[in-house]
Amino acid sequence: MSKRRESVYLSLKNLPSQVFVVLEAGCRWGTDFFNIMGLNMYTAPFDSGRFCIGKFRPMESSNSVLVVDLDGTLVSTDALVESGLDFLHQHPAGILRLPGWLRSGKAMLKQSLANNSSLCIEKLPYNDYVLELIRQAKQSGKRVVLATASDQAIARAVADHLGCFDEVIASDGGTNLSAARKRDALVQRFGVRGFDYIGNSSDDLLVWQASEHAILIDTPARVARAARRTANVSDEYSTQKTPLLAFLKALRPHQWAKNGLIFVPLMTAHAFSVDALGVALLAFVCFCLVASGTYLINDLLDIQDDRQHPSKCKRPFAAATLDPLTGIWSALLLVAVGVLLGVMLLPPLFVLSLIAYLVITLAYSLVLKSMMAVDVITLTVLYTLRIVAGSVAIETEPTFWILTFSLFIFLSLALVKRFAELQQARNKGETGKSAGRGYYPSDMEMVAAMGVGNGYLSILFFALYIQDAATIVLYSHPQWLWLICPVLMYWVTRLWLLTHRGEMHDDPVVFAIKDKVSLVTLLMIMAVFGAAI
After folding, report:
1. Cα separations (Å) of 398 from 137, 266, 333, 456, 514?
2. Using CA atoms, how far apart are residues 219 and 239, in angstroms rounded to an integer?
């Protein structure tokens, strides 16, 4: 060792454990010298590029500290995105406040959203593999630190819930603790190579480089390759996910059956031409695209409520099998394509119906679904709006009695769904208001009475449709239509009896698609219509 280096080394040995040292950027003996001397040196360039600044401290045991990231690592989701979605769910008009928060910095945005949202910390999708790594670290006597770019309010809530962290380092409204800032904070506390780090994203590359052991969790292939080149990767874990299947599930293709109502005017008006059928098919496609977009939006806004539901917790966003950001962009694309197709190829009145459906659905997802009675009436309107859209698409007048029948039968089906939810809550001993709804388990009997009554009323209005003068002209044998009434009576009665017995576990439309008796009932009705024509 040269006398110059030896004198510097002896001087540094007598300094406090954390000191800033400024070296010329071209200094050839900078970082290597400190590592050789057993001192932990970390360097980062000034903006001018002429100097580098480092902090050194005595080496700590690489086995003494395990640092764990939160978003995408400890939990299989992004707390910022989820808190933002929950904020919009609770405060739809709050979207106007987001630009102001963002102008104050990303850290302020995170803090504001964390303080104005209600994430269900207990139900977050925790990664079992990471929890096992933490358990092993605690057993071996390591300090376990939660270091995250999420706001400190969320980070501390997670730490309090799990009860396994010795320290929490997080964004605080002023500093966004990601990438280089997180690395600097950890190096300041533990030194370079003084900790092991579990992370998942490109923001963690710099932190992995400063760690003794890099542990990769669900890391994209490109980022994983970069980590292997620049860091000491000791472990990699990938959750078995099927994003394509999760995406298809989130689109709810089984719900597209509801859009079959678009073809009802085609049948009732006997408009069986090839052109009319082509127009109806195109209208059906537009509604399916927009409907799937709104299903994505609804599920995104409902993540916190769905996680508390016995079956909805398996939905892709609630179960974290699909990234919320993917859902947001997909929803916007689906809605845009559906509306654009309508504008280009279908009558203006159809486009107005489609936009009305979109607006009402968004209002339902944001506000109306939590309002007693308003929620089921809104669902009824959305069903009936499909029939109206089918009529204007093929440019026919919607039949008054069919629209009235639709209002009452679909109100009955909407109440079936609410009754089933309340029944599940009562069976679990709950007495409070259902999550995200305006009903209590004690409302069950009233909901059932309204649902059964509306179901039978719908059959009355179908009978009035049969007797209508315009209907008699349309059919060669209109008297055959009377056979549909007892079939409907049987189906409505059976539906409500099964629901009352606790056998309705799905959306009633999904139930009808899966239920053999319902499918046979539908075939019988179609056969009677065919005979009447």
Report:
1. 68, 10, 31, 22, 29
2. 10
Tokens found for residue 389: 């859209």
Tokens linked to 444: 């069950």
Question: Among positive and negative, which fits the CA dihedral 206, 207, 208, 210?
Answer: positive
Within 39-179, residue ranges assigned H as helices are 79-90, 98-103, 106-115, 128-139, 152-162
CATH 1.10.357.140 in the chain: give the residue spans. 241-398
8 Å CB contact between 223 and 201: yes
Task: For residue 53, give the DSSP letter.
Answer: E
For 429, counting Cβ atoms within 10 Å of its Cβ (0-12 exposed, 13-18 middle, 19+ buried), the class is exposed
CATH 3.40.50.1000-classified regions of the chain: 65-237
Q: What is d(CA 206, CA 184) in angstroms, rounded to the nearest whole number?
A: 9
User: Quick count: other Cβ atoms within 10 Å of Cβ 404?
Assistant: 18
CB atoms within 10 A of CB 33: 18
> Among 153, 173, 183, 167, which residue's Cα sits nearest to residue 79?
153
Q: Side chain identity at 341, as an amino acid letter?
A: L
Contacts of 395 (CB under 8 A, 6+ apart): 347
What six digits make up the tokens of 255? 């719900």
Separation between Cα atoms, residue 231 and residue 60, nearest integer Å = 18
Place of tokens 């630190």: 145
Q: Considering the domain 65-237 in this protein, what is its CATH number?
A: 3.40.50.1000
Contact 245, 373 (CB under 8 A): no
Beta bridge partners of 148: 170
Indicate the pairing of strand 65-68 with strand 39-45. Answer: unpaired
Measured in degrees and rounded to the nearest 5, phi and psi for residue 511 equal -60, -45
Each residue's pLDDT, cut to its tens digit, for the chain (533 residues) gives: 444 434 333 343 344 433 434 443 334 334 433 433 334 443 333 333 333 333 333 333 445 899 999 999 999 999 999 999 999 999 988 999 999 999 999 999 999 999 999 999 999 999 999 999 999 999 999 999 999 999 999 999 999 999 999 999 999 999 999 999 999 999 999 999 999 999 999 999 999 999 999 999 999 999 999 999 999 999 999 987 788 899 999 999 988 989 999 999 988 887 788 899 999 999 999 999 999 999 999 999 999 989 988 888 999 999 999 999 999 999 999 999 999 999 999 999 999 999 999 999 999 988 898 899 999 999 999 999 999 999 999 988 888 888 999 999 999 999 999 999 899 888 888 888 776 678 889 999 999 999 999 999 999 999 998 888 888 888 888 899 999 999 999 999 999 999 999 888 767 878 888 889 999 999 999 899 888 88
Which residues in 208-353 belong to E strands, given as ranges? 213-217, 233-237
Indicate the pTM of the whole model: 0.80
- Sequence-separated (6 or more) residues with CB below 8 Å from residue 313: 123, 306, 307, 319
CB atoms within 10 A of CB 450: 18
Closest CA to 247 of 310, 293, 312, 201: 293
Q: Does the domain spanning 241-398 belong to CATH 1.10.357.140?
A: yes
